[in-house]
Amino acid sequence: MTDYTALEQEAGARIAAAQDLAALEALRVEYLGKQGSVSGLLKTLGTMTPEERQEKAPKIQHLRQSVADALAQKKAAMEAAELEARLATEKLDLTLPAPEAPRGSVHPVSQVMDELAEIFADLGFSVATGPEIEDDWHNFTALNMPESHPARAMHDTFYFPHQDHAQRHTDGPQGHRTLLRTHTSPVQVRTMLSVVEKNGGGAPIRIIAPGRVYRSDSDATHTPMFHQVEGLVIDRDIHLGHLKWTLETFLKAFFEREDIVLRLRPSYFPFTEPSVEVDVGFAIENGKRVLGGSGDAPGHGWMELLGSGMVNRRVIEMSGLDPDEWQGFAFGVGVDRLAMLKYGMDDLRAFFDGDVRWLRHYGFSAFDQPTLSGGVGARA
Ligand code: PHE
Asked: What is the percentage of the chain residues whose pLDDT exceeds 90?
């Protein structure tokens, strides 16, 4: 005679006393496994008389169910206890700073271009662009440098190879040779042409054109690719005074110094007449050149900064405007050079090496931009 109740109690007590999951699994095998004692009891049902089976089957089934329930409960309790224990020991410190994600920086050239756009926007200029792959008509001819002009040789131009020798001068658009633009001045021509096209000869024009330019040249202060910003104003009765005021206002805002002094020297560019080279006065402070003050003062000097002049009437004419009605001035300045002067870098080549250490040092945060103190309007 098997005492099912005693068996159930014994199994229940042993399961309750199990120390870990392995012990629990051993008990499951002992009772419910193929060779287990409860499984053995179930097998005896087959050998019983129908009456006996009717009496014992529910008891054995109850026993099996009770042991299975006890095992499941204990297992759940053990798992919950294990989780509790882990939660009690493992801590998540929410006050720890999050690991920093690598962040890029704004290249000084981009930064300076943004500053230039900001300053000239205050003066009513908009930003114009033109192609870097130019043709020699826009880059030279329309700027009063015909084919044999000696100034073309000064530019160390990168020409595209001829497709065919017979087509020497007919590779590019409009039958002109293609090249990498040597300066941003072709944007002057393109802007005047598009204004003429849009409203039948309407000016005024007030644009700056920042962008990449290319010359076959390389040393500490020259790279084959560099950046310029072109300025162009076309209106009625424009004279050199407007040019001087514009450059002075721009440079004071850009360098954030009121004591910027300019010296205008006669010069020569085929596309401006008269042409003016602009120098800026500097002082030597702690062995470094610092812009400001007259270059004629003792211990001071003049630094050549940019080329400019009154737009040559032949350029105005070639761009489709009537030079008797419209005059203007233009200037071109190296953006990289402006960045070097303002932010104190000394090797131009480092601008284009892509060394992240240099960029980390000289780059600007996209979230924490140095802004120009007040802009142009604030000082008027
Ligand atoms: N394009 C000239 C250069 O690259 C600069 C310049 C621009 C001079 C506009 C006069 C007027 O040297």
From this structure: 64
Instruction: Answer whether residue 185 is part of any domain.
Output: yes
350 DSSP assignment: G
The count of domains in the chain is 2
Whole-number pLDDT of residue 150: 80
Site of tokens 């950046």: 227
**Mean pLDDT score of the chain, rounded to an integer?**
89
Within 6 Å (CB) of ligand 1, which residues are found? 183, 185, 230, 269, 272, 307-309, 330-332
CA atoms of 63 and 48, how far apart (whole Å): 18
Instruction: Based on the fold, state whether residues 153 and 199 are members of the same structural domain.
Output: yes
Residue 299: C-alpha distances to residues 281, 287, 289, 295, 306 (Å): 11, 11, 11, 8, 22
Tell me if residue 327 falls in helix, strand or coil. strand
Q: Strands 133-135 and 126-127: what pairing?
A: unpaired
Q: What is the distance in A from the centroid of ligand 1 to the CA of 281?
A: 20
Listed in order, strand segments (DSSP E) in 174-299 are: 178-180, 205-214, 225-235, 262-269, 272-285, 288-291
Nearest CA to ligand 1 atom 12: 307
Say yes or no: 213 and 300 in one domain.
yes
Identify whether 168 is part of a domain. Answer: yes
286 found inside a domain: yes
pTM of the entire structure? 0.71
